[in-house]
Amino acid sequence: MTPMIDIRDLSVVFGRGPKPVPAVDGVTLALAPGEVVALLGESGSGKSVTLRSLLRLHPASARVGGTIRVDGTDVMALSPRALADFRGRTVSMIFQEPRLALDPVYTIGDQIAEAVRRHRGGTRAQARARALDLFDRVRIPSAKRRLDNYPHEMSGGMLQRAMIAMALSCDPKVLLADEPTTALDATVQIQILLLVRELQREYGLSVIFVTHDIGVAAEVADRVAVMYAGRIVEEGAIADVIRSPQHPYARGLLDARVELAGGRDRLITIPGAPPDLADLPPGCSFAPRCARVSGECRTTVPPLAAPLGRGQVACFHPG
Amino acid sequence: MRAAVLPPLEDRGGPAQPLLTVGGLVKHFPVKGGVFGPRRAVQAVDGVDFSVLKGETLGVVGESGCGKSTTARLLVRLMAPDAGTVIFDGESVGDALSLRDYRRQVQMVFQDSYASLNPRLTIEDSIAFGPRVHGVAARAATGRAHDLLARVGLEPRRFAGRYPHELSGGQRQRVNIARALALEPRLVILDEAVSALDKSVEAQVLNLLLDLKRDFGLTYIFISHDLNVVRFMADRVMVMYLGRVAEIGARDAVFDAPAHPYTAALLASMPKADPAERRDAPPLSGDPPNPIDPPPGCRFNPRCAFVEDVCRRTDPPLAALVPQHSAACLMASSGSGHSRAPEIAA
């Protein structure tokens, strides 16, 4: 089956001058139609930069290499006009802070209707009816009244639902989610995660879900790709990676979880801190923090390879 | 003549006396309404009672708007409460115990490690600032700052002269912890102190906090929205909802047998990190309500699965189920009129 999303050897470099920052370095990832993949990583790992590349949201000064195809379309080659059609129609996105993503001076209903008319045409009344239908689907109570709300009149959870409604307004094939539940309270987070999962099934969406939280990834994703310092270091079925992580960084992250500490008085930690992207070590980026490091790790970047036919890991000493 | 060291702080009431006893704490923030509109207030903290025992870690959990951060700010007197008393080791704060002496003994670490440091001070100056205000000579204060930096895992020779922007988030939070300890406090309030850190760094800082607590004989109030972290750190746990205490008790009692339906829902909402345990329905629907208009009766009643008419009329008191475990729920208070309440013993 042809993949819905096919990212090959993506690289994104910010800044010129003496110390450019390679935020993403050689990311290759494919998603089947209807598949949900979590991009898991800490700040600076390149997960959000990878996601934004799919909509070409980087500043003009960023140098982007590699190829991205979505539903057969070469994203890098799109003209500005075709890109505007592509955004929202084929691929849409939800963000961590809906308050920043929505316009504060228009009602939510007007903002959704504007997107609907831009992509699908039709009358104002049709667009509003569509917005009302979407509000019902994302389970916003008293939907009709809520359409006339301004963003500041809604709570965080309600606003995130409204943003999901807007993202789905033009029947996209791909939904990109950039930490959409990180700013929400626990009881609301689980509601939004379940909503995303349900709508994903209903619409047959391919979803890339960026998160730093393994628990969140486990709630929504079929597969997970763990990122570190701009590269994917491990990729596989979510259950496999959680049960038996192969990369030492993925293992470290899973072992450091406080919920596993039951009874112990100390947490297992990964020593050190993530590297400065502008000053990466020549070999494996994780080598300075790794317990299994060998000479080879310090000189050569390990390729992402498939051990045992299950998933892939970029490590010379996996297991 | 400036002193070389701070005068030592003494334990006054002995180990059995709580370090901190809070009674009837209230803080309302007035909100501007229309000219003719009703005068309204955000009831951020609305009658909170609890105590903190010497040497323990009291975990405080709750969602945004529950009043946990306002409570912390009231405790260190970053703002004055509208009502209520704070008793520190037997002495009433602002009364028998002056604010200046109290503040030396109670220090706070905030979530935003950058905003809580002066960007124009080197980190050794930031750490030495408090002791100098309290009369320690400059040289001695700087020496102590270096000791503390080493203690929190930042080599003084490399880090002392740096500015906050030259450090990573985890390093800055270590500086904030060192600064909180500079006055040799007895109680440290950690308000979401690890929430902004990456997971691999968070684990390191939690281990550091445990080491410091043991080595300096500290007492912690540990505020977090992350129940897993609180479970790891706390001896007792207080759950807050809309400005009130919903439940308080020993950690295992609260986590293993929650008595308040809100606590149970909060626990059930945590992601399970196991795709085999996915749920189909969320434990609670809706958002936490606005603390401007808390519902009458029990504040949790509009979201509660066990709500009955009596819950909409009666404000449940914080009632002890067993010694050391209390919940503000009519189902836990005998004779309350709720059908699930325990029978009154004959």
Number of helices of chain B: 11
Mean of pLDDT of chain B = 91
**Could you please say which CATH topology of the largest domain in chain A applies here?**
Rossmann fold
- Strand residues, percent of chain B: 15-25%
| Pattern of helices and strands of chain A | EEEHEEHEHHHHHEHEHEEHHHE
Task: Label the overall shape of chain B.
Answer: globular
CATH class of the largest domain in chain A: Alpha Beta
| Sheet with the most strands, sense and barrel status of chain A | 7 strands, mixed
Low-confidence stretches of chain A: none
Question: What sort of overall outline of chain A do the alpha carbons produce when their principal axes are compared?
Answer: globular
The CATH class of the domain at 15-114 and 185-292 in chain B: Alpha Beta
The CATH superfamily of the domain at 15-114 and 185-292 in chain B is known as P-loop containing nucleotide triphosphate hydrolases
Q: Reading side by side through the largest sheet of chain A, how are the strands ordered? A: 6-7-8-3-9-10-11
User: Terminal Cα separation of chain B, in Å?
Assistant: 70 Å
Number of helices of chain A: 12
At CATH level 2, the architecture of the domain at 15-114 and 185-292 in chain B is 3-Layer(aba) Sandwich
Quantity of strands of chain A, as a count: 11
